[in-house]
Amino acid sequence: MKYTVSMEIALPRERVVQLLADPAHLPKWLRGLVLHEPLTGVHGQVGTTSRVVMQMGQQKFEGTETITRREPADLHGIPKESVVHFEREIVGEGMWSVTRERFTEAGPETTLWVSENEYRFSGLLMRLVGLLTPGAFRKQSQQHMQDFKAFAEQGKDVRETKD
Fold first, then answer.
1. What is the pLDDT of residue 89?
2. Is the peptide bond before 72 cis (omega within 30 degrees of 0)?
């Protein structure tokens, strides 16, 4: 299963990618995050593997995230014409996914965030989940992006909202 979602954020690209890359901010916008801890490497750097635990309603997911691309490595003084890339792979029971994110300047104070997502499922249960609820994955990706946008632009913290 593959899909792409995108969103504009009313902040300069350099500020957006710095906020996104800072692990201290993850709980503020990544709804359902229980744990995100590096096992090897430094958070956000290429080659780093992390244990990730997410809780969505009654469902709990645990997987291993590996950062496969971050360009440029230094998120300060990024040339205007450059595209910033963040890519990661997540492996969990019955599921493999890759996310390829690109950040470009949509204007002097606006960033375009494009997220390409791909999922592969193994095992009967996960294949059924992927087959029966493909829209749920896209919806969750859009929710994470919307939550990040609200955090970045307005300082909203998902832990303070009632769902």
1. 97
2. yes
